[in-house]
Specification:
420 residues; five-stranded mixed sheet; 18 helices
């Protein structure tokens, strides 16, 4: 693993986020807020996959239109060739397919020690910053949790009001209720053992709609989802665009919760819910990891109020369009085109160049065990026998040579090696 790989994943995640934002803008008023919030699952799935990994192959993939791995590979080869002191065996970079560029033999050259050390310093610096940021979020969450444990238990009438609300809608989650001594807005703390915290000034007569909003967050596991996206926020701490996107995800979660609550209320109560939302947002609430509050997304209040004012039931036809659009976007974000697959397997490499690449692989020595394991994993992830050849013993290399020769004679992609 290197900082270069981290940049590739972050850049591809940014491209997916741009596509999803465009789709959300295009259908902003035509599909439900829940659809808009659930769409971010595709971004999460893309970030879990290494750059270049494809679930399926097709010709409408985002990776075909915006080939981050190929562009990154081209840039990496340029950096290596610029700084390497070793003689270059590679042929010039050529266009193997529309939008896909590659060096002919794909053989990496040895980098000078100082550049290798710089990459390691950058990677460990990135990892240290990500861990420090996550530690900060966890510390704030634990400090709040400890403070909540010291709060007094809620009076029985308030606890009964919460239980009756849950019973009315068939929600069975166990939620404890505590009273915060200061003012502010109610919020829920914790995902596994949720606690509803109500400020003391509101304990005597809190609006039922506020409680309903917070209990809806518990029922639909929005707090657990917040943990996951906060972890990815820390992993992409250096990418300001993705930080903005994660804030947008939090806003969409609040709008989806508003929509769920409106679906439970009678139409005459929708206007009153909007007034309650405005009054709560004016109180202010600073987000902490593991919490959820009706005042979250206060900067997004205009969009939330507009959504509430225009709330209406979506027709079955629109729901069907939403499902089809979701799967279309999933195909574009999570799969790869045949051209990209060819790039990663070395399509279009002449036989003589394959032999030159194997000679270069025999001279290449991984710097340490970690690099050897990385090349081994990369070989199976990409089905690229070149990387497997680098870390193979003599017997396995002979078997791989036979496989590569069979590939060339059969007209197949030269670097595929199956499970050899």
């Amino acid at each position: 693993m290197s900082f270069w790989n981290v940049l590739q994943v972050s850049l591809l995640a940014s491209a997916v986020a741009l596509l999803l934002l465009f789709a959300k803008w295009l259908f902003r008023e035509h599909l439900t807020a829940r659809w808009h919030a659930f769409l971010w699952v595709l971004l999460l799935a893309r970030m879990l996959l290494p750059a270049g990994t494809q679930v399926l192959r097709n010709e409408i993939s985002l990776m075909g239109a915006f080939d981050v791995p190929a562009v990154a590979g081209f840039a990496e080869a340029a950096v290596v060739n610029h700084f390497s002191d070793a003689p270059l065996d590679a042929q010039p970079v050529v266009q193997a397919a529309p939008g896909v560029y590659q060096t002919l033999h794909l053989a990496p050259q040895a980098l000078p020690d100082w550049l290798t050390r710089l990459d390691r310093i950058l990677f460990w610096g990135y990892l240290a910053a990500a861990c420090a940021l996550m530690a900060y979020f966890v510390f704030c969450a634990l400090r709040l949790r400890l403070a909540v444990r010291r709060y007094a238990a809620a009076p029985e009438p308030l606890c009964r009001q919460v239980r009756e609300l849950q019973s009315r809608y068939g929600w069975e989650e166990r939620v404890r209720v505590r009273i915060a001594p200061s003012g502010g807005t109610p919020y829920v703390c914790g995902a596994l053992r949720p606690v509803l915290v109500v400020p003391a000034p509101l304990a005597g007569g809190i609006d039922e709609k506020v409680l309903l909003h917070e209990l809806a967050h518990v029922h639909w596991n929005d707090i657990a989802a917040g943990y996951v996206f906060t972890a990815f926020r820390c992993l992409h701490w250096f990418n300001p665009f993705l930080w903005w996107v994660f804030g947008r995800i939090s806003d969409d979660s609040e709008m989806a919760c508003d929509e769920r609550v409106l679906g439970l209320l009678d139409p005459p109560e929708h206007k009153a819910y909007g007034h309650v939302l405005l009054s709560m947002v004016q109180q202010g609430f600073r987000y902490r990891l593991g919490t959820s509050c009706i005042a979250n997304g206060g900067g997004n209040i205009r969009r939330r109020i507009v959504r509430i004012a225009r709330h209406k039931e979506i027709s079955p036809k629109a729901r069907g369009v939403g499902v089809l659009l979701f799967f279309l976007l999933a195909v574009m974000c999570l799969t790869g085109s045949a051209a990209v697959a060819a790039h990663w397997r070395g399509a279009g490499v002449p036989g003589g160049d394959v032999k030159a690449a194997l000679r270069a692989a025999e001279r290449y020595r991984p710097a340490d065990v970690n690099e050897a394991l990385y090349l081994y994993g990369k070989a199976y992830t990409l089905d690229n026998g070149y990387y497997r050849y680098i870390v193979a013993d003599d017997g396995t290399r002979d078997a791989l040579k036979r496989v590569f020769a069979e590939n060339r004679s059969a007209g197949r992609l030269p670097w595929g090696f199956g499970s050899t």
